[in-house]
Write a structure and sequence with these properties.
The chain is an alpha+beta fold and 520 residues long. The protein has 21 helices and 16 strands.
Length: 520
């Protein structure tokens, strides 16, 4: 990329996204929708799948025999993480172009899909049949593979747990080319190690997920709170209840104000009133609409189910306002929003090195997961060090699997424990006054999370050293499984895949510097 082009892409970021990423995202999605329609109607997806898996197995065997480390050949810009995945340059890259829905089993209430199937593909396929995933993750473009080998959370997670808790089986090609169907019973060590392993134990080629019966609408109750104490008390009561709501999330708008949303599946109301299709292209962003209930007071609406499941897609949660500042204006919504939000992958494709460097220091995209008993302290910490609003709050049930806990922290001897995801997305106000140090502040956040026996989602940048990373994530089972299935000599470790690019930052030096400054 020439210097002039680099400078243009850096200086006119908003217009590049508006003029390039938005229309090309629309075109790209239409092509993908057509491809999926062709496969569903004219191809035997199971036969195609079996042929492709055998081909992948043969490629893996050859790479294994050569002694090379392996990774997928998927272009780094196509992933949801903002990292450039420079580790791929030193690996044998195995093409895994598996993006089909394979079969639905209504008797056992499960859905079998390939790893590049997206959440949008799944809702388009399942909802007309009266089903949804038990944990139907929000963003349209998130892939099943990324969520199963990483982590997936949604507003039903306080009942079901993370997405991986609803997985019935993984089909994995291991380091030596074996094809294994891993379940809780047949290969429990591998099965429980795969979440958050990020493709470092084998290649995922299909997964079977739990599905549930649904109705056409989500009956959503908006509950505004006006003090931090009221918010914490209400959230604790809802999650501690013997009959918790089916769906639960909250948006925190300031140190005092928040709106809690509880939902349940519902049929269309007989009077046809209070129906709100929130994702129609001309509607304001959902999170800005929800804020209005701080003034309106508690109310109930009926939202078409697919609109609810993808309610934050059009605004990329809260991040599009910083990328296209005018995208929530009425004129933009009516004239251009029909094309949808820009895809994260295409925005990443146009990201220059200078923009990547700035994002490391000035932009925050973090999800921290801590016990709900520490939620108030976590919110106070975020307010003090980040001052970013709104915040996304989503409770999740974590079960104690003892020796099979994998990377997920143990629950202090309890059978299960409620944690809470606090999502921080945006640009801190102090960036404009050049008073904010992104790396230093993020390291403080990481230390806070470790102290609370919590953890972070690894799609975002991390600033931990390897030692600090292994304090946050238990590697005991992971290392045993890597050795047992010969992955230790075939795949990079998780840490080496999720740290920022080496040309951006030396984490060991940064750790020493931040400790020295703390002493001073």
């Amino acid at each position: 990329m020439g210097k002039y082009v680099q400078n243009f892409l850096t200086r006119h970021r908003g217009w590049v996204i508006f003029l390039f990423a938005v229309p090309f995202s629309f075109i790209y999605q239409k092509i993908e929708d057509f491809r999926s329609w062709i496969f569903r109607n004219f191809q035997s997806t199971n036969k195609f799948h079996e042929r492709e898996v055998r081909h992948i197995s043969n490629l893996v065997k050859k790479a294994h025999d050569s002694g090379q480390l392996m990774c997928t050949a998927r272009s780094p810009w196509k992933t949801m993480s903002i990292r450039k995945a420079t580790y791929k340059e030193d690996c044998a890259q195995i093409p895994i172009n598996l993006k089909n829905i394979l079969e639905i089993d209504e008797t056992n209430q499960s859905l079998r899909v390939e790893p590049l199937v997206t959440m949008g593909d799944i809702t388009h396929y399942l909802l007309p049949k009266g089903y949804a995933l038990a944990v139907q993750v929000e963003m349209d473009d998130l892939t099943v593979g990324g969520l199963c080998m990483g982590i997936g959370i949604e507003t039903s997670s306080h009942r079901y747990g993370f997405l991986f808790e609803t997985i019935k089986s993984y089909e994995i090609v291991t380091a030596d080319g074996q094809i294994i169907n891993a379940t809780r019973d047949t290969h429990p060590d591998l099965f429980h190690s795969l979440p958050m392993s990020h493709g470092t134990l084998g290649f995922l080629v299909s997964v079977e997920l739990e599905i549930v019966k649904v109705k056409d609408y989500m009956k959503l109750r908006y509950i505004p709170t006006h003090t931090r104490q009221e918010f914490n008390k209400t959230m604790q009561e809802l999650t501690d209840s013997d009959l918790p709501p089916d769906f639960l999330e909250a948006l925190v708008y300031s140190p005092e104000t928040a709106v809690i949303m509880i939902g349940e599946f519902a049929n269309k109301p007989s009077d046809g009133k209070n129906i709100n299709p929130i994702n129609r292209w001309h509607k304001q962003w959902f999170y800005t609409y929800v804020e209005s209930f701080l003034e309106k007071g508690e109310q109930v609406e009926y939202i078409p189910l697919r609109h609810y499941f993808h309610r934050h897609t059009s605004s990329i949660f809260f991040q599009l306002k910083d990328l296209i500042p005018f995208a929530n204006k009425a004129w933009y919504r009516w004239l251009f929003a029909w094309m949808g939000a820009p895809k994260v992958s295409l925005m990443k494709y146009t990201m220059t090195k200078e923009l990547r460097k700035r994002s490391l220091q000035n932009r925050v995209a973090q999800d921290i997961i801590i016990p709900i008993s520490d939620m108030e302290e976590g919110l106070n910490f975020i307010d003090k060090h980040f001052e970013i609003y709104p915040l996304w709050v989503c409770p999740v049930k974590i079960r104690n699997k003892e020796s099979n806990s994998g990377f997920i922290p143990k629950t202090n001897g309890q059978k299960e424990q409620i944690f809470v995801d606090l999502g921080i997305y945006g640009i801190p106000p102090s960036v404009k006054q050049s008073k904010w140090n992104g790396i230093e502040t993020s390291r403080k956040l990481e230390e806070f999370v470790r102290d609370k026996n919590g953890f972070q989602m690894l799609y975002a940048d991390i600033f931990m050293t390897r030692i600090e990373f292994e304090e946050m994530f238990d590697h005991n089972l992971y290392r045993k499984v890597r050795t047992k299935y010969h992955a230790d000599k075939a795949f990079p470790e998780v840490y080496d895949k999720v740290i920022p690019e080496k040309w951006l930052i030396n984490l060991e030096q940064e750790a020493v510097r931040s400790k020295e400054e703390a002493i001073v």
